[in-house]
Design a protein that fits this description.
- It contains 5 helices and 8 strands, in the order E-H-E-H-E-E-H-E-E-E-E-H-H.
- By secondary structure, the chain is α+β, with helices and mostly antiparallel strands.
- Strands 1, 2, 3, 4, 5, 6, 7 and 8 form an 8-stranded mixed beta sheet that branches.
- The protein is globular and about 50 Å long.
């Protein structure tokens, strides 16, 4: 029987990625909506790791199942590491993904450095109180214009020099190999595999 884990997200893109990666460990990944629980957690942490842990603990309590949460965002050198933990809320409530990355491009107008990285922290909390954490990072630059149709969030403007493409131009497989979330998930699934063997 597949072990069931709840992923603390309403983002279908993240659910799909997590199902693909953890399915290999025989884990069934469900969203809070699938269980009828409302998992709005205020992200009051100052780091991605703190926010991931807050979300995982709250969902684990509500679902009484192991819960996984990630917090990730874009850190741009010219913006002193911003938008960082505010990536999803950058520019305020009314903006969609496109609105946020266009705002970012405008903020960087005239900047000589376009260096940036995506960071991801994953936290997993078990009903017995045990926790697992993992982190990943992917370095790149901010493109001068959006390119590509894939991905979500800032993917159309995050350019990966060694691939000479933005995240939005990569296939899911190519992106998972090098992305911050892909790296964090690889580390996490290794730790989880070890934990489940115990």
């Amino acid at each position: 029987m597949a072990e069931k884990f709840v992923l603390a997200t309403h983002n279908p893109g993240k659910l799909r990625e997590m199902r693909e990666i953890l399915g290999k460990l025989g884990i069934e990944v469900v969203g809070p909506k699938d269980l009828g629980i409302d998992a709005e957690v205020e992200e009051t942490g100052t780091t991605f790791a703190e926010n991931a842990m807050l979300k995982a603990k709250a969902v684990c309590r509500a679902a009484k199942l192991p819960a996984i949460a990630d917090d990730s965002g874009l850190c741009v050198d010219a913006l002193n590491g911003g938008p960082g933990v505010y990536s999803a809320r950058y520019g305020g409530e009314g903006l969609d993904d496109k609105g946020r990355y266009m705002l970012l491009l405008n903020s960087l107008r005239g900047q000589s450095s376009r260096k940036a990285h995506f960071a991801c922290a994953i936290a997993c909390v078990f009903p017995n109180g045990k926790t697992l954490t993992a982190e990943g990072r992917c370095d790149g630059t901010i493109a001068f214009a959006p390119m590509g149709e894939g991905g979500f969030g800032y993917d159309p403007v995050f350019f990966v020099p060694e691939k000479a493409k933005t995240f939005a131009q990569l296939t899911d497989g190519e992106k998972n190999e090098i992305s911050h979330r892909g790296k964090a998930l690889t580390e996490f699934s290794e730790k989880l595999a070890t934990y489940l063997k115990k």
